[in-house]
C-alpha cells in the first residue's frame, strides 16, 4: 500500500503537468522556435519533367522546351526574378563564389512570388531564327523566348575539341531585398549547353 | 479651279490624318518604358506591403497569388514592348500596376486585422495564468481533503495481533 508521501509525489506530478499544459499557449507567444537553414533553390527540368532529355543539338526554326523551378525555403515570402541570358564560350559566366552575376544583357525575366516552402514552375519555350554559318563561326540573330522575339546577335566559334558551335543558356536567380529596395543576385544559376547545328 | 480646290481639300484631309495618327494609335516607346517602370515599382511596393503583412501574422496566400498574376502581366508588357507593340505594352503595364495597387490596399486591411488580433495576446496570457491558479488551488484543496481521508482511513483500522 502507498504511503502519504507517495501520494504527495503523484499530486505534485499531476500539478506540474497541468501547469505546463496550461502555460503552453502563453509560452508560444513569447518563445520562437529556431528555424532551419534558409535558402532558395533554382533548377531546370527537361521536357518530360525529369532531369534528363535537355535540348542540346539545336537548329533554327525548331521549338525547344524546358521547365524552370524555384523553391522558397527562406522562412518568409520572397520575390524572385529568374533572368535569362545567352553566352558563348568566351563570355563571362556568373560567379557564384563572389556573388557576381553575368554582365550579359537580360533576354527575358520571370517575376516569381513565393511563400515559405512553396515551389514555382514556369515553362521556358525557345527557338532560334536567322542563324548563319561562316568559316568556323556561327551567328544567331534572333531568339524567341516564350512569346517574345529578342535580337541576340550572338556568335559562336567552332570548338575543335568538342566539335560544335556552343552557346550556353544561363538562368540566374535574383532575390528582392526589402531592406535596400532592390534585387541582388542570389548566387544561384543553372545553365544549358546548346550546340547550334545547321538545318538539313 | 474646282479641280485644284478638290486636290487642296484632299491634301489637307490626308495631312490632318497623318498628323493625328500618332495621337490616335498613341503610345511611344518612351511611354511604354515609363509605364513598365511604374508597374515594376508598384510590384515592388506591393511585395513590401505583403511582406509586412506576413510579419504581422496574417495569411498572405491570396495576396501572393495576385502578385504572381500582376508579375505575369508585367512580363507580357515587357514582351509587347520588345516586339514594338507599345500601346499593348503600356496598357498591360497599367493593368499590372492596378493589380499591384489592389494588393497594397488589401494587404493594408489584412495587416490591420492581424495587428488587432495580435493585440489580444494579453487575453491568452490572462487565461493561462488564471487557469494555472485555479488548477493549482483545486489540486491543493483536493490534496487537503485526501490527506484527511487518508489519515481517517489509517486511524479507523484496528490493530491486529499476529501470532
Cα distance spanning the termini of chain B: 156 Å
Number of helices of chain A: 1
CATH superfamily caption of the largest domain in chain A:
Immunoglobulins
Sheet with the most strands, sense and barrel status of chain A: 10 strands, mixed
Global mean pLDDT of chain B: 86
**How much beta of chain A, percentage-wise?**
over 45%
User: Cα distance, first to last residue of chain A?
Assistant: 97 Å
Name the descriptors.
heterodimer; A: 200 residues; mainly beta; Immunoglobulin-like; 2 domains; 1 helix; B: 163 residues; mainly alpha; 5 helices; rod-shaped
Describe, in plain words, how this protein is organized in 3D:
The complex is a heterodimer of chains A (200) and B (163). Chain A is mainly beta. Chain A has one helix spanning 4-30; strands at residues 39-45, 57-58, 64-73, 78-88, 108-114, 119-134, 137-145, 148-159, 164-177, 182-196. Chain A is 14% helix and 52% strand. In chain A, strands 1, 2, 3, 4, 5, 6, 7, 8, 9 and 10 form a 10-stranded mixed beta sheet that branches. The longest helix of chain A has 27 residues, at 4-30. Chain B has 163 residues and is mainly α. Chain B contains 5 helices and no strands. In chain B, 87% of the residues lie in helices and 0% in strands. Chain B has 2 domains: 27-119, no CATH class; 125-157. The interface between A and B is large, with 34 and 40 residues.
Amino acid at each position: 500500500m502507498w504511503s502519504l508521501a507517495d501520494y504527495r509525489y503523484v499530486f505534485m506530478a499531476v500539478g506540474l503537468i497541468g501547469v505546463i499544459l496550461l502555460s503552453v499557449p502563453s509560452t508560444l507567444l513569447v518563445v520562437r522556435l529556431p528555424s532551419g537553414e534558409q535558402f532558395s533553390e533554382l533548377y531546370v527540368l527537361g521536357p518530360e519533367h525529369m532531369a534528363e532529355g535537355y535540348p542540346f543539338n539545336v537548329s533554327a526554326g525548331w521549338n525547344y522546351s524546358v521547365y524552370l523551378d524555384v523553391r522558397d525555403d527562406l522562412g518568409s515570402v520572397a520575390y524572385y526574378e529568374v533572368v535569362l541570358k545567352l553566352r558563348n564560350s568566351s563570355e563571362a559566366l556568373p560567379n557564384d563564389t563572389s556573388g557576381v552575376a553575368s554582365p550579359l544583357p537580360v533576354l527575358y525575366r520571370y517575376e516569381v512570388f513565393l511563400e515559405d516552402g512553396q515551389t514555382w514552375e514556369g515553362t521556358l519555350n525557345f527557338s532560334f531564327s536567322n542563324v548563319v554559318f561562316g568559316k568556323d563561326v556561327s551567328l544567331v540573330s534572333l531568339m524567341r523566348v516564350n512569346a517574345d522575339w529578342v535580337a541576340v546577335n550572338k556568335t559562336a566559334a567552332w570548338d575543335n575539341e568538342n566539335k560544335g558551335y556552343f552557346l550556353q543558356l544561363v538562368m540566374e536567380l535574383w532575390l528582392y531585398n526589402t531592406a535596400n529596395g532592390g534585387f541582388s543576385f542570389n548566387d544561384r544559376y543553372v545553365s544549358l549547353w546548346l550546340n547550334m547545328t545547321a538545318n538539313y | 479651279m474646282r479641280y485644284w480646290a478638290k486636290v487642296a481639300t484632299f491634301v489637307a484631309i490626308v495631312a490632318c490624318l497623318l498628323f493625328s495618327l500618332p495621337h490616335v494609335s498613341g503610345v511611344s516607346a518612351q511611354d511604354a518604358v515609363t509605364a513598365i517602370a511604374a508597374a515594376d515599382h508598384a510590384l515592388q511596393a506591393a511585395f513590401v506591403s505583403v511582406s509586412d503583412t506576413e510579419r504581422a501574422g496574417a495569411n498572405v496566400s491570396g495576396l501572393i497569388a495576385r502578385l504572381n498574376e500582376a508579375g505575369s502581366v508585367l512580363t507580357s508588357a515587357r514582351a509587347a514592348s520588345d516586339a514594338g507593340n507599345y500601346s499593348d505594352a503600356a496598357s498591360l503595364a497599367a493593368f499590372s500596376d492596378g493589380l499591384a495597387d489592389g494588393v497594397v490596399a488589401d494587404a493594408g486591411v489584412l495587416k490591420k486585422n492581424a495587428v488587432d488580433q495580435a493585440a489580444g495576446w494579453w487575453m491568452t496570457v490572462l487565461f493561462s495564468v488564471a487557469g494555472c491558479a485555479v488548477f493549482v488551488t483545486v489540486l491543493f484543496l483536493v490534496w487537503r481533503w485526501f490527506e484527511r481521508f487518508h489519515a481517517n482511513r489509517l486511524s479507523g483500522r484496528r490493530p491486529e495481533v499476529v501470532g
